[in-house]
Amino acid sequence: MRRICFTLQVRPERLDDYRRRHAAVWPEMLAALRSAGWHDYSLFLRDDGLLVGYFLTEDLSASLDAMEATSVNARWQAEMAPFFADLPGGRPDRGFLVLDEIFHLEES
């Protein structure tokens, strides 16, 4: 499994609404993520809007492509895009910045 960590920037004026939306993610979206190979997925949000995401996957490209093939993902991305500042490509799922892993305790 590959560990993926990514960042995005949530607009500060949208933080409360963003938190509310993620307290009630659509069941269809949760099922799609699981089916697409996203495991142990977490989001962390700082008060200034820095969003850090983390998940495990066998193959990042395949997981992204599997989500791309779902109708629920298109709807979710369209609804989530306005929450973000400086979003390359206009979609959160294709505009996040993947960070390079430089240390992992279990592998040291």
From TrEMBL:
Coiled coil: none
Cited InterPro entries: Dimeric_a/b-barrel, Rham/fucose_mutarotase
Pfam families tied to this protein: rhaM
Protein name, as recorded: L-rhamnose mutarotase
